[in-house]
Write a structure and sequence with these properties.
Elements lengths: L2 E6 L5 H14 L4 E5 L4 H7 L5 H10 L1 E4 L13 H8 L4 E7 L12 E7 L9 E2 L4 H14 L9 E2 L5 H17 L4 E6 L8 H13 L6 E6 H10 L6 E4 L1 H14 L7 E6 L2 E6 L16 H13 L3 H17 L19 H13 L1
Parallel strand pairs: 1-2, 1-3, 3-12, 5-10, 8-9, 8-10
Antiparallel strand pairs: 4-5, 4-11, 6-7, 11-12
Helix pairs in contact: 1-10, 1-12, 6-7, 8-9, 10-11, 11-12
The chain binds nicotinamide-adenine-dinucleotide (NAD).
Length: 361
Amino acid sequence: MTKTITLIPGDGIGPEVTDAARRCVEATGVKISWEEALAGQDAIEKFGEILPQSTLDSVKKNKVALKGPITTPVGIGFRSVNVAIRQALDLYACVRPAKSYVGVKSYYKNIDLVIVRENSEDLYAGIEFEEGKPETKEIIAAIEKNTLKKIRPDSGISIKPISVTASRRIVRSAFEYALKNNRKKVTAVHKANIMKFTDGLFLRTAREVAKDYEGRINFEDVIVDNMAMQLVQKPHNFDLLVLPNLYGDVISDLCAGLVGGLGIVPGANIGDGMAVFEAVHGSAPKYKGLNKVNPTAMILSGVLMLRYLNEFQAADRLENAVKEIIAQGESVTYDLRSDPKDPLAVGTSQMADAIIAKLKK
Ligand code: NAD
């Protein structure tokens, strides 16, 4: 059966890398009808707004989207279109696998981690009070009255809400991802020893959810600072990590660094029955239209999408084709060469062509 999927090319290098990913996904033979929807610079030019309602409606209808990166314009509207999409569609789980590929420069080998980051609350909820404002003074006064603790009057305040509801659904979605993708262990990461009412709540909830998966998926918890050290010293001890928003942001970049950086790390934003797949990297505007950047992160986001659609065989075939092309090191972009100025580096679309040719062999 043909599946309709929303394709958001994005801007900057977005259209080039999404075109590469679309062609690679199509070459697997999975029947997809793409419904193109605009967001970013092209949407401003055509609709006068950066994130048209019609784009959100398309994702809501089709339930799955493949999305290119989108530039966050300085000084207008909301903080980021990417964040706005996640919030509007309640895509509360940010899933980022970090996997080693032979041929990618990196200090480590054979890393295979998945990071599941809560996307909707924590210090990223955007609840902030600016230093010196009357409402900030009110908040400080209320805190001092209720806790008998002093806060310096020249403080800014950011609020860190962590709820049972959001903790439960993120941990459950981490376990479900582990089951579906043959993972063996979930590690909850927190700072519950210090923040007992937020991280403590997250940990307590994670332990409760873990009971439902006993005997099927192992569970442990690690304090975030210790986690950072252990990931550098012995990353192979871990399998799937689930974290509140802020730690998830930091640790997922650390894990991208373990496997060689942004050009190869895919991502997914998943909610209840809906998912948007996108590379971790941004729109790299200086490379726009040059057919130069690495399409791997976007193609591997397509691999995650195929798995989400239960097209496991097609996903494995595409991932293997990417793996082989990178390992051969011939038809790869500048960033995967030992000398980035190597004149033999191929362009974005030529790397996709080589992956497609490998897939069809
Ligand atoms: P960026 O990821 O766009 O680029 C940083 C650098 O990383 C580039 O200059 C390039 O050297 C390298 N790089 C990125 N992608 C690459 C690829 N596919 N192949 C090879 N090299 C690659 O980060 P930035 O410059 O901080 O952000 C640019 C814009 O993208 C900003 O407006 C930012 O808000 C936005 N952004 C969007 C997303 C998203 O759409 N999800 C994510 C991050 C940043």
